């Protein structure tokens, strides 16, 4: 109000222009709206904070246990080919075994994950290992195996076979770990695209004292 009265005074003194009371009030309200717009423009828009999930790194199993991380790759372009990879380490973080195999006739990335885990379990049984923690970076696969999610018809045969392989007194367990802690198995599975044969490859890592 005072600002508008001051402007009206200057208009009267220097330009001999006078304003009626009603016009002055209207001008005041126009000034108020103008100042409100300027204030709103100055207020920074609050952006929601970006929350980054912490990177979860691979952890060693308890003493006298080993841990086998498996992963499957699937070709999204052809929707048929893929690969399986797994790696076995002990509680000293030492690498014991690694496996890689090319896969054919897959219908989804989940099938590739399941095939990789099934092969890893078969391999550990063949090597006569006990007390093995199997880790997959597919939460859906883990939930299907543990019965937390209803079995899909297409996945039923392989899931039931995995469940049967895990049973017994070998101390086999299956768990979920994010991909950030499963990078080695993920890389092995993806490198199988260069394989020209479906014959699997096993690598034994020996430590010489």
UniProtKB/TrEMBL annotation:
One of its GO terms (molecular function) is RNA-DNA hybrid ribonuclease activity. Gene3D superfamilies: Ribonuclease H-like superfamily/Ribonuclease H. Transmembrane segments: none annotated. InterPro entries: RNase_H-like_dom_plant (IPR044730), RNase_H-like_EbsB-rel (IPR052929), RNaseH-like_sf (IPR012337), RNaseH_domain (IPR002156), RNaseH_sf (IPR036397). This is Uncharacterized protein LOC108825175. It holds the Pfam family RVT_3. Residues 69-191 form the RNase H type-1 domain.
